[in-house]
Design goal:
Strand order of the largest sheet: 3-2-4-1-5-6
Order of helices and strands: EHEHEHHHEHEE
Strand content: 15-25%
CATH topology: Rossmann fold
Largest sheet: 6 strands, mixed
CATH superfamily: Phosphoglycerate mutase-like
CATH architecture: 3-Layer(aba) Sandwich
Radius of gyration: 17 Å
Shape: globular
Mean pLDDT: 96
Number of helices: 6
Number of domains: 1
CATH class: Alpha Beta
Structural class: alpha/beta
C-alpha cells in the first residue's frame, strides 16, 4: 500500500478584493498574506509544493518552499478558469451589466458560462490533467497544492463524482480554505478520499 496526501489551499485575498479574476494576475494583498501564513501550522509536513503560475499563488508558495526547504513545481494547468467578459468585474457589476446571467452561472456553470469564458468542461479536463500528473509523479509523498477556488472545485468534483453543473454551488471555497485528499494505491486499485474540507 502506498499513500499520497494532497493538501489543496486556495490563495488569500488578492489586491483589489473580491472580483472575477480568473486570468487577471493580481498579487496577494496584505490581508491575503496574513490569511495564507495563518492557514499554515507548525504541524504541517510536506515533501513538495505544486503551485499555479498566478502571482497570488506562486509568491506565497515560493516563500513557503524556501522556509521548509522543499522543492516547488509550477503547473500551468492549475491556473484559474478564464471568466471572459466578466474578468475584473465584481458580482455587483456583473449583475448590473448582465442581469440574470450571474445567477444562471452559479446554478449551472456548464450552460450558463460568461460570454467569452473558458468552457467549464475544458477547464475541468485541464485541471484534472495537471492534478493527476503530479499525483502520479509525487506518489507516496505529502504534497501541498497552492491554487484557486475554481481549481479546488474541479478537483473535488473529480474525486467525489460531483456533476460539473453543480460544481460551483455545492460547497464554499473561501480564501485560504484547505482541503485534504488521500490517495491509496494498492494491488486492488487506486482509492481517492476527501479527508477534510476546512472553509
Amino acid at each position: 500500500m502506498k499513500t499520497t496526501t494532497l493538501d489543496l489551499i486556495r490563495h488569500g485575498e488578492p489586491e483589489g478584493g473580491q472580483m472575477f479574476r480568473g486570468s487577471k494576475d493580481d498579487p496577494l494583498s496584505e490581508l491575503g498574506w496574513q490569511q495564507m501564513r495563518g492557514a499554515i501550522t507548525g504541524n504541517d509536513r510536506w515533501d513538495a509544493i505544486v503551485t499555479s503560475p498566478m502571482a497570488r499563488c506562486r509568491h506565497f508558495a515560493g516563500e513557503l518552499a524556501g522556509q521548509l526547504r522543499i522543492p516547488i513545481h509550477v503547473e500551468d494547468e492549475l491556473r484559474e478558469i478564464g471568466f471572459g467578459e466578466w474578468e475584473g468585474l465584481t458580482s455587483e457589476q456583473v449583475q448590473a451589466r448582465y442581469g440574470e446571467q450571474l445567477s444562471q452561472f452559479w446554478q449551472d456553470p456548464v450552460s450558463g458560462q460568461p460570454p467569452g469564458a473558458e468552457a467549464v468542461v475544458d477547464f475541468y479536463q485541464r485541471v484534472v490533467s495537471g492534478y493527476e500528473r503530479w499525483q502520479l509523479q509525487l506518489a507516496g509523498k505529502r504534497v501541498l497544492i497552492v491554487c484557486h477556488g475554481g481549481v479546488i472545485r474541479m478537483v473535488l468534483a473529480h474525486v467525489l463524482g460531483i456533476p460539473l453543473d453543480k460544481s460551483f454551488s455545492g460547497f464554499a471555497v473561501p480564501y485560504a480554505c484547505r482541503s485534504r485528499i488521500q490517495v491509496d494505491h494498492s494491488e486492488f486499485g487506486t482509492f481517492r478520499s476527501l479527508i477534510s474540507h476546512q472553509p
